[in-house]
Write a structure and sequence with these properties.
heterodimer; A: 290 residues; mainly alpha; 13 helices; globular; B: alpha/beta; Coagulation Factor XIII, Chain A, domain 1; six-stranded mixed β-sheet; 34% strand
Chain lengths: 290, 427
């Protein structure tokens, strides 16, 4: 209310002029429009499962079916190791952050073009669009996580199971890895969404980019299968660090692969910062190019 | 200088042309070129981004300077492509100027197109919140005004129905209602009053004058001269991206309506006057012929007037109709007519093949009163797409020599001067 009255009595002056050189990041206006971020997130969530028969059940069905299929192919048929944990749990632990990442990549990558009519008509910080696309994925993540708990309980209490859930302090670090996942996701999304405005090729690249990314991330296999000399290169994929972090935190297996996570986190932050700079610089011409 | 709301100095906006329409070719074209020369395209795309040769760019706006004091309602008029929308887009921060500066004192609310950001799957209630937030309202602000917005839109009963089930009238009413309740210091309004039925338009006009009287600054763009005359005190006339005239509204409207016509009875559209969205429709010319078939600017009220619209279709168009609107110099509509008005012709001409066409009609003798009139041209497929629209295509003069009642040298009221069969009966 107070800011409202303030603007009424002494309106802010805005200067519009061509920007030269690198645009300022100006994250303040994202803060001013924080309600809009929430509204867009809310809209994306509301709309996602409208006019579907199964509704939000899709958020459960997708990862569970993936898990079942991968278990058959990679564990039974290909015989990949799962570091002593039942393969479904091993796999599902990685599918949690991967689902968040791949879904956001596809939604956010296309988000600006999908909202084209707004961008050419009304001013608001364009960052709100990909940011809220990514945030909307958190709901699916939450639902998938509930399913995870069910799976854990099932394996812990079913007779003859070799797996028992044990609480470790590592579990408390999970939010940190979720934040790392969001940083990586947002960084990649900012790059792709801004590029998609000018080069619609991005829309065609997205499906197989996701597919390739899936296989260079230790989801169906363990990163211990990767030869040591490639490990640094392998860690450049920020999702590697995220997935290893999730496994370490949730499953309590092996020790934390420090170097790997530090490299991945560094790359994730670098992606986010460069993504922001790139987005801000492209943003000036969005309305003209889209 | 605290009482200035907007100050614009040497504002200019340059658009690149040529690259944008290329993207919207058909899939088949894309595949053909994509397969034949993807590397070349990639190289071209990269180099096109770096150089900005003058030949492939167009100044949509150039060297515009003006000031608007706070609380003023300023009209902006101009033909299609004069730069009105570009100016509003710059002032509402949708796009950046290429040169010059604009100084905005206060929050700008834009009503560039009502209903932008509405999501068809969401209910009326949800859309009010979403749309309000997009337009820059705070949640508390929307909550406070919610009842008022719903009441104004007259859709109370359907407020929890997804807007995809709304009639187009309800949709527009709700959209306008949200936009009209913005509390921003500066409002930028583009042609929103052209929607809805007459009743709702009256209501919108009322709301607009309320806004104006509440001391807020309004920039009002419209093709409707009577709306501009009613709502604004002062008006800018834009032409081809330049500010050509600024005066009190009645003066500016007269200037605008009288300007830009060659007075030859013919208007030929040049390539830069045809927007890219018009494709595959290319307007060539509109002309007026008298009974001898000559192209003239002044026609007689007592003789039929032939109107010809010449155009080319690069591809076949389904459901195309080409029509004219006749307006008075004050912008009031006299009539509208389309070349497929006849139901039989409408049935037969579902698809118009590619080629050069003339759509020709005759305004019967003894129809128009003396004075000057404007013809507007519309080429559209009903509810599908408006290919081309020029609301200011051609002006002409009607001479009433020999028309009914000319024995009395007095002006007659109204745009029509029909010859009616009077009977005088003594009882």
């Amino acid at each position: 209310m107070t800011t409202d009255q303030l603007t009424k009595s002494r309106p802010d002056v805005i200067y519009l002029r061509p920007t030269r050189g690198l645009a300022a990041l100006n994250l303040r206006d994202l803060w001013v429009y924080r309600e809009l971020v929430l509204f867009f997130t809310w809209r994306d969530i509301l709309v996602r499962y409208k006019q579907t028969v199964l509704g939000a059940a899709w958020a459960v069905i997708q990862p569970v079916i993936q898990m079942v299929v991968f278990t058959f192919i990679f564990s039974r048929a290909a015989g990949l190791s799962s570091e002593g944990v039942p393969y479904p749990i091993f796999n599902y632990t990685a599918l949690l952050p991967w689902g968040l990442f791949s879904k956001a990549l596809n939604d956010a990558g296309r988000s600006l073009v999908t909202n084209r009519n707004m961008i050419t008509k009304i001013y608001f910080p364009r960052l709100t669009i990909p940011v809220s696309s990514v945030l909307a994925g958190l709901l699916d993540f939450g639902i998938a996580f509930l399913v995870y708990i069910v799976i854990i309980l099932y394996y812990t209490f079913s007779p003859g199971s070799t797996y028992t859930f044990t609480f470790t302090p590592a579990l408390l670090t999970l939010p940190l890895f979720l934040i790392l996942a969001l940083i990586a996701t947002l960084g990649v999304s900012l790059w792709l969404s801004a590029m998609n405005v000018i080069y619609r090729d991005v829309g065609h690249i997205l499906p197989f980019l996701t597919q390739i990314w899936f296989f260079v991330t230790p989801i169906v296999y363990s990163s211990s299968e990767v030869s040591n000399k490639w490990l640094v290169l392998y860690a450049l994929n920020p999702l590697t660090g995220v997935v290893e972090g999730f496994r370490w935190s949730l499953l309590g297996i092996h020790s934390l692969p420090w170097q790997l996570i530090v490299v991945s986190a560094g790359v994730a932050v670098l992606l986010l910062v460069t993504g922001l700079v790139y987005f801000r610089n492209m943003e000036r011409t969005f309305a003209d190019e889209i | 200088m605290n009482d200035i709301a907007i100050r614009v100095e040497k504002l200019g906006k340059r658009y690149r042309i040529g690259t944008a329409p290329e993207r919207y070719k058909t899939l088949r074209d894309a595949i053909v070129t994509g397969v034949s020369a993807p590397i070349k395209r990639l190289r071209n795309a990269a180099s096109a981004r770096r150089r900005s040769s003058e030949s492939s760019t167009i100044w949509a706006l150039r060297d515009i300077s003006f000031e608007v004091p706070r609380g003023k309602v300023l009209g902006i008029v101009g033909r299609n492509g004069a730069g009105k929308s570009t100016l509003l887009k710059i002032l509402s921060r949708v796009t950046e100027p290429t040169e010059g500066t604009a100084e905005i004192h206060g929050r700008v609310g834009s009503l560039l197109e009502v209903g932008t950001g509405f999501h068809p799957e969401l209910t009326g209630r949800e859309n009010i919140y979403l749309n309000g937030a997009i337009l820059g309202m705070k949640r508390l602000e929307i909550e406070r005004k919610f009842e008022e917005i719903v009441a104004f839109s007259e859709v109370e009963q359907f407020i929890d129905t997804p807007v995809k089930r709304y009639s187009s009238g309800m949709y527009l009413r709700l959209a306008f209602a949200v936009a009209a309740h913005l509390e921003h210091e500066i409002l930028v309004v583009d042609e929103v009053l052209a929607v809805g039925d007459a009743e709702f338009q009256r209501k919108c006009m009322g709301k607009m004058s309320d806004v104006a009287q509440a001391g807020r600054t309004v920039l009002f763009v419209s093709h409707n001269m009577s709306a501009v005359l009613r709502l604004t005190e002062e008006t800018l006339v834009l032409d081809k991206g330049h500010l050509v005239y600024r005066a009190s509204t009645p003066q500016a409207v007269d200037y605008y309506m009288a300007s830009g016509f060659t007075g030859t009875g013919e208007r030929i559209w040049t390539a830069d006057e045809i927007p890219a969205e018009a494709a595959p429709f290319t307007p060539c010319a509109i002309r007026l012929r008298d009974t001898k078939g000559q192209v003239v600017d002044t026609l007689r009220s007592t003789e039929p007037i032939t109107v010809e619209v010449e155009y080319r279709l690069v591809q076949a168009i389904t459901g195309l109709r080409v029509g004219i609107y006749l307006l008075t110099m004050r912008g009031e509509y006299v009539f509208t007519s389309f070349d497929l008005d006849d139901p039989q012709q409408f049935e037969q001409l579902g698809v118009r093949q590619a080629g050069l066409y003339i759509s020709r009609c005759t305004i019967p003798a003894n129809t128009l009163n003396e004075g000057r009139y404007v013809l507007a041209v519309n080429a559209s497929a009903f509810r599908v797409k408006r290919y081309f629209w020029d609301d200011h295509a051609l002006a002409f003069t009607v001479d009433a020599t020999g028309a009914p009642g000319k024995q009395w040298p007095e002006p007659r009221m109204g745009p029509l001067r029909p010859s009616l069969d009077w009977e005088i009966v003594r009882l």
